[in-house]
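lol ok so funny story. i was supposed to be doing the assay writeup but got distracted and ended up predicting the structure for this chain instead. priorities right. anyway since i did it might as well share w the group, maybe its usefull for someone
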Amino acid sequence: MIREEAEKLLNAAAKSCGAGEDFCVVFSNMPNCDFQCNSCFAAAKKLQTNPFELAQKIVENLKSSKNFEFSVARPAFINIRLTEKGLKALASEIAYQKPESKDKHIFIDYGGPNLGKAMHIGHMRSLNIGEALKRLYKKLGYKVTSDIFFGDWGMPLGLIMALLEKEGKFQDYLKGALPLTIEVMNRAYPAASKLKDEDSAFKARAEEITLAFQNKQHPYYDFWKKLRQVSVAEATKVCKLLGADFDLWNGESDASGYIDEVIEIFKQKGLARESEGALVVDVAEEGEQIPIPKKSPDEVQRYENPMPPLMIQKSNGGELYATSDIATIYYRNKLYHPDVLHYVTDARQAQRFTQIFRACKKAGISPAGQELLHTGFGTMNGKDGKPFKTRNGGNVGLLDILQMVQDKVEEKLKQNGTEYDADVKRKIANAAIKFADLSNVVEKDYIFDIDKFISFEGKTGPYIQYTACRIKSILQKAEESEESFDFYTPEQKAVLMGLAKLKQSYHTAFNEKSLSGVCTALFDVCKNFSSFYTAEHILSESDPAKKAVKLSLLRLTLKEIEQACDVLAIEIPQKM
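and the output, tada:
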């Protein structure tokens, strides 16, 4: 970008002054400059010289540029202002620059629903964050493969089958005499989970059934296939509503066939040891300390040491989630050869992924050059600050949440006298949910406040949509005009600089694995456009040259808003 051009000029001058080449140029919020550099402070300290004098010397040694004006401000800031030609160059860059294809393949795993249970509110952040990161990677030119990855191979399914067997309904559901639905599973799993804690014989039977379907024994494997079919259909419906799409719909069952192979790798490399009949792998590193979460900010930080070993096989030979995850990495590397494996889950799984990644690196299951990433997100809480739950303390169904927000949006649209249909209502509700979710730093908890999220004013998804619809409406009424980037007012320049910051925010989001900066930059673009729209006449502009500039800015702004919304998986209605 043009910012990098300024940085190169500055570093060349700094090098000629003996100050090195570590000078960084960033966007400025100061009214008298567009970019700024404060690297003179650190450079002057190394050179043991006056930072202000160093800044002056560097600016004096700068090569002349048609795009920038450089100046020095105390105590030692180098201010950079775009010239008229620089503004044109920036606008052209935003309008026409396309991302280069990156020679890197990113495999992203998010969503993670479990078979036998409806998707609940805990899955929403994984879907929103994972989908946005996937789209971000594609926008930046990376090859991407996405997988929802079902939890479809564990004891919860054995518990459901054991309960239906105990109730004498197993065969009826298997043969279709009774319809197997998600509602049946939602009833059966909590009841079975409670019963296993009270009845050791029932728990043992559930474990037997789990081992049976994992060994593909009939009729339990047949019943498992029915459970999977119903659960996948339900998850597909939810994902479609939220605008999440996947290349692969695999699960733990797909990794099952590789588990014996990976366990053998650990044995052959001398990494597995027996512990109380089970097989474990030591993954702790020397001198490592794991911080124990504080109960209050003032509490002294305490540590757990060392990290516990990773169990890869139960004493009865049963499969574990961790082993399944390792086998998944193993087969993904065999089939897809990704450069990066990126997992998006609840932050509470951070230690488990650290253990799994270390085990894979020790065993060579993940090659040395491969990056293993885990993005852990915080919880979505109610207004009381506690995790969002039903009245009886259970997880809120994701479909229930989506319907709740749509109902609130419908009330709002009726109050405003706005025409709408089911599709518009869905798009606005999704924008409210997604923008509110993604606006937060990914690892932080946040408060779920529907009334705030659906507002058409302020930093919300509907406000972004409304701005785009307003621009569309103006452009539909306007006559065709030539493209012109001869910006001449502060409001026009503010919009352009906002678009440049939005472009830069994608790269920051890539580094931070959080979309909060993109949401902030997108909101600022809309806010700047609103100031421009209020200050200047557009359709009634009598000067053809000035009108062409304004309409060009509108087209450019709409294009960038639409692209940013696409990254966030937010759809823009035709009108609002």
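Residues 155-242 form one domain. The mean pLDDT is 93.
back to the writeup now i swear
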